[in-house]
């Protein structure tokens, strides 16, 4: 009966494809479309409705694209498109029914496996099997929501009963387990909130709380140990992996965190967060960069979300810089910045980071002015971020004093950017000292001396500033004060080259006198 409902279209390539196709590419692709439909018909004939439906959809979509691109004759091919549409519509309810019973069988099998695990009293096995029960039921619910699902299919019992059994066993297990841990009241309170959390809120709160180091009873190391036990018991709880991975990150245990994300991926293979942090915590060698890049590209292939795409592009830029592929790194940083700029209020920090790495790449490519402009964009996007202003000023200072050439334009710009930073915080360490150095290069001795003295009032142990002040005294022919400054600088840093050279000059001048 079903075969009479299908009209199997078999067209000879020699007689049909050339007449329908407008290009060689169109002919080749059209041949593949007809071949796909022929295979779908065969699958339909043997009642493989799910497989045949996927093939009909693929053929219909591909033919539509070929017609849209004018690779085939749209008028002549329209009848085939309508035919594939009819075949798909005929197949849909049959495929839906078949898929329903297949998913139902899987669901009932998973329920039985869970119930069998109760007798083993292994909480980890129970958690994994319950997760399979819930996921298979969710698959049934998703299938039931499609438009062409037959209305006469019997209802399936939800997993509430097995979830109840698990909750009771887990409560009993945890109650007995916690008694052996000797928690203080504060630790018990934290544990209760973490173990029963239904979102990431409590995990984030307690990680931040422990990171403040205000309560010796709640430390990151203690949370790490707690999460290790919880992950072992309930590996299908995303929050526990989140807590464990981040407890390591906050302790600067990057390799341990990477191992955690790697294990978590087994249970949450589609998690953008886990793929991202797995990539971010990969090491700093070629193999690690390659692994990180594969995870980041996976993210880009799976989501259109600007937040995740921008973060992935930014991390890719970092990895390609490490591989010395600066052109690709620049393209990735540009993509990250463009995506972040579309939502600048939310992603201003990421935009600034992307522009900063762009500047670093441009500097490596010897595009100095472009590098400065990129860093300026980064600083302007985050006006409260003083360190970005200092980055701009420091870059301009290094460019101003290029070997064998002093650039007045870069020097003046550097002074302006230091002043912008100092307006936000007049006591930033090193800013006044850097200004003193620039003024010294410009020959403005009085300003250099004033800035150096201001810097030393903030940071009296700065060898570079002490050396700078020494040079201002040298310029004034005050050799004893200069010698004193250079010696003080060397007390703090015996390897300070500026102080070593300055001391030689001061002593030479004193000997000449």
Please, could you describe this protein's structure?
The structure is a single chain. 78% of the residues lie in helices and 0% in strands. It is mostly helical and 513 residues long. α10 packs antiparallel against α11. The longest helix is centred in the first third of the chain and has 45 residues. It starts with a helix and ends with a helix. The N terminus is likely disordered.
Tally of contiguous helical segments = 25
Order of helices and strands: HHHHHHHHHHHHHHHHHHHHHHHHH
Main β-sheet description: none
The parts where pLDDT drops under 50 for at least 5 residues are: 1-15
What would you call the structural class? mainly alpha
Estimated radius of gyration = 34 Å
Please state the overall shape, judged from the principal axes of the Cα atoms.
flat
Q: Give the end-to-end Cα distance, rounded to a whole number of Å.
A: 117 Å
Query: Helical residue percent?
Result: over 70%
Estimated share of beta-strand residues: under 5%
Mean of the pLDDT scores?
A: 91
